[in-house]
Amino acid sequence: MNYDVLLQSDHWLSLNYSKTFITAISMSISDPSAAQTPLLDDTVDGCLDYKGRPVRRSSSGCWRSASFIIVVEIAERFAYYGISSNLITYLTGPLGESTATAAAQVNAWNGAASLLPLLGAFIADSFLGRYRTIILASLVYVLGIGLLALSATLSSISSSGGQNADDIALSSSLQFQVILFFFSLYLVAFAQGGHKPCVQAFGADQFDTQDAEECKAKSSFFNWWYFGMCAVRNRKTSYSAIAAEEEARGILATESSKQFKFLNKALLAPDGSKEQGEVCSIREVEEAKAVIRLAPIWATSLTYAIVFAQSSTFFTKQGATMDRSTATGFEIPAASLQSFISLSIVLFIPIYDRIFVPLTRALTGEPAGITLLQRIGSGMVISTISLVIAAVVEMRRLKIAEEHGLIDKPIVVVPMSIWWLVPQYALYGLADVFTMVGLQEFFYDQMPNELRSVGLALYLSIFGVGSFLSSFLISAIENLTSRDGRDSWFANNLNRAHLDYFYLLLAALSAVGLTLYVCCTKYYIYARWGRTF
């Protein structure tokens, strides 16, 4: 592999990501409301723009605003996946890391990028608002991508220094390049933490005229903080007192109110008084119950997130050892096969919406054909199947390598077409249509309006924690299987590794996770402010 060409290519791509992202951001900052003055007073009640001015229906909101948000999201995803898809190749190539170490690094970065939205959502919902958080995060994003391009440039200069360069200076330059690279990489992850949880919620807000203005999110946070103090301080309150208070407030005994009844203690003040401001409202208690109900779904979705992390690591390394040539002589980059995930999503979503939903609706009577929880579980089943197929393909690859005497020749291409990997990538995309989209809608829909940025951050945190768990699992397996001088499952020579064992292990974990998920869904009660499923 010509790493100079690779680095120059990375540099060119990074610069183009930056240009695309900057253009999209400049479009989103523009103020379309100044272009025209409405003839009639069409102010939307209870809604203000990011400057605190009344919002007019004729000059803001709906697709007029959402289109700019979509452009920014497309540019951000283009930049993010341009980095994540090629990261393991860059780490094992120019930076010279082992396969296991590089996979752990990629998972750690993906984990940080998916957990930081919790911080970003907190800042947006409690202090800055979604709009300002998106703008600031986007500027930091551009800075991170620019520094990544700079680190690639420095690497190109270092590699062209030749043998005449001073060894000490070269070593110092390489060390600085590595530090700059990882600093830039995590700066991008930090920026995504502010961008990702806000942009979807902000886009959805453009169509919801009933939502409270964003600046009230700060008071919502303190309401929830005070709620927590009232569940704790009333822990010794008798249930007879709670029942009396529920009857006085006219609370009907619904399935929702019967769950987590200990939280109803927050309806009473610690001293037994009923002064305004000293107790929580019925809605606040029900909102707390809704958030707690999400916890089992969040936890049992982690196995899917662990599986999801493999497409950008071992799948790519697997493809790099296979025959990637085409009839025209062009060699397919191994990382480009990840595009089949997106392609299968683009192809199947219309089929899901126009064919699958009407057919299942006729059978089940559900408005969406199947419930959100059923949709998420279906994707988990598909992802488990994709792992079994990946294991079978890897077994076939190892057998061909052995038959051609390539076990100790890792540089030689295994005479097996890279197109064998397409089914597992396509099934990953199909699983995403069910589970990823289902989780997004589920965590947005089941959270209170004021906390929907946090809801989307919780959804993203599933994949953050999943990436960290994947990194931990890889490190543990690497240590266990490499004892006594043996080749580990993730040996740098993939012809002596056993990715097939790893895929089968993940399939088994997925089956266990799916079983636990199904058990949890039996007891889930949908929030009343969400749609009826």
TrEMBL record:
Localization: Membrane
Any single Gene Ontology cellular-component annotation: membrane
Gene Ontology MF term list: dipeptide transmembrane transporter activity; tripeptide transmembrane transporter activity
Topological relation to the membrane, as annotated: Multi-pass membrane protein
Pfam families (UniProt xref): PTR2
Major subcellular location class: membrane
Keywords associated with the record: Membrane, Phosphoprotein, Transmembrane, Transmembrane helix
Coiled coil, from the record: none
Membrane-spanning intervals of the chain: 134-154, 174-191, 332-352, 372-393, 456-477, 501-525
Family listed: Belongs to the major facilitator superfamily. Proton-dependent oligopeptide transporter (POT/PTR) (TC 2.A.17) family.
Protein's recorded name: Major facilitator superfamily (MFS) profile domain-containing protein
Lineage: Eukaryota, Viridiplantae, Streptophyta, Embryophyta, Tracheophyta
